[in-house]
Amino acid sequence: MSDALINGLAGAGGGIIAQLITYPLQTVNTRQQTERDLKKEKRKLGTIEQMCQVVKQEGWERLYGGLTPSLVGTTASQGVYYYFYQIFRNKAESKALERQKKGIGDGSVGMLSSLIVAALSGCVNVLLTNPIWVVVTRMQTHTNILRKDHSNRLATPALEETVLSAIEPFSYSTGHAIQEVYDEAGFWGFWKGVFPTLIMVSNPAMQFMLYETMLKKLKKQRSLSKPDNNGVTALEIFLLGALAKLGATVVTYPLNVVKARLQAKQVATGDRRHQYKGTMDAILKMIRYEGFYGFYKGMSTKIVQSVLAAAVLFMIKEELVKGARLLLVKDGIHTVKSKLP
């Protein structure tokens, strides 16, 4: 089994576990990002308050709306990303060693090369998996948008609740979301928000650059203090992953909000402030009608969710890689011994 495949499978496994743990936070964050209430005097609900509100009004299952396609997307994204990341990194390491033989550098992959490797891996991942995340966004925000559409059209609160109570028992499935996207924009509708998402590859690129840099320094310090042991613990991997994700999230969060706005169902009202034709149109309207605050809606929730998810993912992925390599080594030793006379 190749090292790239081991990393791809380990990344997918870590991503699934991290997704299951943090999914309710992700659902709430997506709703916060796509909230288009322009009344600034309205008190914004906190993360815990909003989670409780969703449970009270819509039931526990709505916190996991779109979980199935999200798990598929996480598995595909992490698998694709780590697979190509390892391939590109192996090539970067080979070139670094070639340069060292020529007397250039120390044979290690520098920060710029790490950034390029992560960015290329991210671009491949985005282009292949964007349709899945469009569907996930629709399913996470479905009930929220449904309530807004009807509340803008129905005459009284009593009539609104009567209609919603009749509508909401019908499940909004993955198939419904796919059909809705296709009916709205055809085949290319599944690549809505791909432009800001491609720019957002800077997030995992920065994340991995920070992670690899901190990991390299930690191993170097460990080898100086303990020459016979330069390994790192699962807890240290957890903390490094959290720090790397925190730095990357703070820088790229506004693009995440724009992407969510584009991928969510457009509000069916005559108010053009709520309707976006593309990335630049969304950015300009958000600046004009919501100010720069609009680009940071739900940021605290996102930081908690993404940092926790990234830390769990890194920790589990590294442990899975170690376990797989150990099993392969033991299997190789067993095979050799079985061939001995």
Describe this structure as you would to a colleague.
- The protein has 341 residues and is mainly alpha-helical.
- The chain has a single domain, classed as Mitochondrial carrier domain (Mitochondrial carrier fold, Alpha/alpha barrel).
- It is 75% helix and 0% strand.
- The chain is built from eleven helices and no strands.
- Helix 4 (111-151) crosses helix 5 (157-167), helix 4 (111-151) packs across helix 6 (174-185) and helix 4 (111-151) packs across helix 8.
- The longest helix is centred in the middle third of the chain and has 41 residues, at 111-151.
- It is globular.
- The protein starts with a helix and ends with a helix.
- Residues 144-170 have low confidence and may be disordered.
- One of its GO terms (cellular component) is membrane.
- It holds the Pfam family Mito_carr.
- This is Peroxisomal nicotinamide adenine dinucleotide carrier.
Which helices and strands occur, and which strands form pairs?
Blueprint: H1 3-34, H2 47-58, H3 67-101, H4 111-151, H5 157-167, H6 174-185, H7 194-199, H8 202-225, H9 234-263, H10 279-290, H11 299-339
Oligomeric grouping of the chains: single chain
Number of domains: 1
CATH architecture: Alpha/alpha barrel
Large-scale geometry: globular
Q: Which CATH class?
A: Mainly Alpha
Portion of residues in beta strands equals under 5%
DSSP helix fraction: over 70%
Mean pLDDT score? 77
Query: What's the N-to-C terminus distance?
Result: 27 Å
User: What class, by secondary structure content?
Assistant: mainly alpha
Main location: membrane
Subcellular location: Membrane
GO cellular component, one term: membrane
GO biological process, one term: transmembrane transport
